[in-house]
Amino acid sequence: MADSDPDSASDPRPLxxxxxxxxxxxxxxxxxxxxxxxxxxxxxxxxFAFCKYCNIDFSVSHGGFNDVTRHVDNQTHKKNARVVAxxxxxxxxxxxxxxxxxxxxxTAEIAVSNFIAQHNLPFLAAxxxxxxxxxxxxxxxxAAQYQCKRTKTAAIITDALEPHYREQVVQIAKTTSFNLLxxxxxxxGADEKLLTVLLRLFDDAEGxxxxxxxxxxxxxxxxxxxxxxxLKATLAHHGLGFDRMVSFTSDTCNVMKGERNGVIAKLxxxxxxxxxxxxxxHVLNLCVKSAVKSLPFKVDDLLxxxxxxxxxxxxxxxxxxEYAAFCETQFKDILSHCETRWxxxxxxxxxxxxxxxxxxxxxxxxxxxxxxxxVKSINTHLQAPLTKLILTFLSSVMETIDAVNMMFQSSxxxxxxxxxxxxxxxxxxxxxxxxxxxxxTANAADLTKVDYTTAANQLPQEDLFVGDSASALLLHLDDxxxxxxxxxxYRHVVQFYQAFIKKMLKAFxxxxxxxxxxxxxxxxxxxxxxxxxxxxxxEHTAVPLHLAKVQQEFRELRVD
Length: 560
What we know:
Oligomer: single chain
Structural class: alpha/beta
Mean pLDDT: 86
Helix content: 40-55%
Shape: globular
Number of helices: 24
Largest sheet: 5 strands, mixed
Strand order of the largest sheet: 6-5-4-7-8
């Protein structure tokens, strides 16, 4: 009977549907007696080994040490091993002369390659430069032996200079605190983005804060979780972690800045004291873009359309010069406005206003002025009194905003200590342009509480700041339509200010205790800072402070 069949009872075959036990992967072990040229993999982890002769990582997860033996017995490995064994070291020819001609030639090639990398020149330039050096320095022995065209230049930059400078950055980052910066692009296409990771830290050798490139990696997961994992893996690959990260800087999209599920939220889970520092220049540009949208026409489009009308046409530029001469206006080139160039709007506005009379006459007389298209659209705007009023007002306001923007774009000194103070000053200035003084003074301790949307708290029309030039234009409006135009203009001015303030309050961190305490880094504020403030800074940031030492240095600074 089948029930008593002994073969059936001892059948080792698994039952149908039974779960298989997962197979464990072998790991590389430091206790192995390894053949020459074999070592642990530094890139791929514990399940791989590295072959110096073949310059590859190979898996040992299946057979452990047997995988190593199998690789060593491979004919390709044996061939590479013979090549390496047959190489003759430089020292075998005698003592290496560091000041030899060959060394000087190598030094020259490295210096030129470094120059090409620093100035972002194409590798193709090295082909011409290599021949040019020999031609212009015929009496130089170094130039005579200089041979560094594109292939060699690319190898020096990617295989020698890049690892060297990266290792310098990593070593500094391992001993000091740093600001982590990142930005992503889609230059690889729809399936992969490039994530560039930068570190901003203090370099003792240069004696200043510097920003250095760590790595650019490809990312296929564009979510906050995917970007966070890419950042974490990049730091870990270089032996770094989030423990020394003081602050994080990125663009302002929700994926990065989301307080619940954004990258910054995930970073705070690793480093609770990380400061989320927005790029002040970028945020100010976003504030302007948001405010400009409240105006009755697209200012950006008008400036861009005027620029591109003349950009590639010598005939049109010559014609504009003739109109400028007729209008007794000094001719100036029309400047381009680009949304990603944070200071371009103010300059473009000023130049357009300088050429206003000539531009108005040119487009009004253009043969295509009656046809539907760009020329008709531009002319319609230029002939409208409201357009010039709004552009003139906007030009005056942009002077105030650009002054702050330029200060933070300066690379000569660190400005993080003045970030909160300058942003508060700008907030107070713009509020003063359209809000009653008593409302501002009543909320002087916290300007974010000013009710700027209530009409009763706003200045009367005649007291709004619109700039001297716009005020002069208002005085010369036509008597019949002037009142209506002025009323419409003032309404849009208030809408602009409200939109600007709304975006500022949302984008900037006005109540960050850490940013407030950073003012102690300003020498002008040192007498106003207490020892308790120094201690509090250490409590609100991830900066590892030796409190007693820092307080002693602070005491000496106050009496210096």
